[in-house]
Prior knowledge:
The structure holds two protein chains of two kinds. Chain A is an all-alpha fold.
Amino acid sequence: MEKESKNYTTISIPTPLAKKIKERIKGTGFTSLSSYVTYVLREIISSDREENEEAFTKEDEEKVRDRLRALGYLE
Amino acid sequence: MIKPHGGQLVDRNVKKKDVDLEGYKTFEISTNTSEDILNIANGIFSPLKGFLCKNDLNNILNEKRLENDTPWTIPILIDFDKNDIKDIKEGDKVLLTNKETGITSVLDVEEIQSYDKKSIAQNVYKTQDVNHPGVANIYNMKEKLIGGKITVYDTKVREYDKYNLTPKETRFLFKEKGWRDIVAFQTRNPPHIGHEYVQKTALTFVDGIFINPIIGKKKSGDFTDDVILASYDTLMKHYYLKERAVMSILRTSMKYAGPREAIHHAIMRKNFGCTHFIVGRDHAGVGNYYGPYDAHDIFAEFPDLGIVPLFFRSFSRCTKCDSVVNDKICPHDQKYHINFAGKKIREILRNGQVPSEDMMRKEVSETILKFDKTFVE
Ligand SMILES: [Zn+2]
């Protein structure tokens, strides 16, 4: 990534760590330090498995429940 | 409940009264495009709120991600004839309607752009061959794209609507059923024994299965929608626990984009609330454009997809094991194996005959054979 691109930014990590990672990704599908670090960071950022609570109003909820009952999906 | 893709379930449905839609230029759009709009409005395509603008489109083609780095592999586009929109400028709103879906929707014209069809074909379909049905569709599109948010004001009740649940409804349903881990199964065919085996193998390790057939425009020779739904109804009635299996339809066109479409299929199921997604051999493939396991390999590019793929390589009946097996669990030679060739089963049914019960449940075959029109012409 010699060329400056608005899609990428440069970050600094300690050189010994970079060396270790380079060793580690030899023979794997990762073609560069950057692609490996991107992969790991994406993995970490998405592992935030915070529960998602649907913002249902009471009225909404009743409507959905009624329809699911009418169609036989709920008893 | 798993978070929708991108973090929030999109809802672009608005009750009609509060706006005056008179005066907007109106376009009668294709049924396929209107189904894309409904899928956006109902959150099936979350986080998309409309049709793609240039930056997102380019990023999808080059990086398989939206501009904000969220995984997204299939461009969702609306095309216009340049003469039809010569008076339309960015900042306008246009009304989009379709008779079949009864849709009334508004598109905010955020960006009007020309585009490179060959680049879309090559990046999405990995080929520029017009014989590829997805590529042919791209080449048949009109010259201009409009990017921008959509809002749906009205739609009508259609055939199969009793099987048609929105992500809001499936998420509520799964919660009511007490399901946490849910595996989704994508299909375009009536179930044979091999499908049932895959579904039940996956179901064994989760709380419930969501069977989600794609309904809509198909190739000639495919099973009709009626046949697919009735055959699953029959299978589920006789061979599944009611509290462990749910079926509802997905109205969207097949793109036959192989690996990229496998990711798209997984994202839609994540939005329905599923945590796992079954990916078979040559998922969403056509002809010989993709390797049989390209649709497995592509998942390695998305550590942040948020839904777990379950890969199945093969399954067949082994006469030595006397059961349905896959290549990981059966040590026996090929000569003991009978494959579940969809083609062969289709041929038998086409001749009005009943496939062997090793291939298809008797109740399912009987259900299929009751139909006058089994296949799309
Ligand atoms: Zn065996």
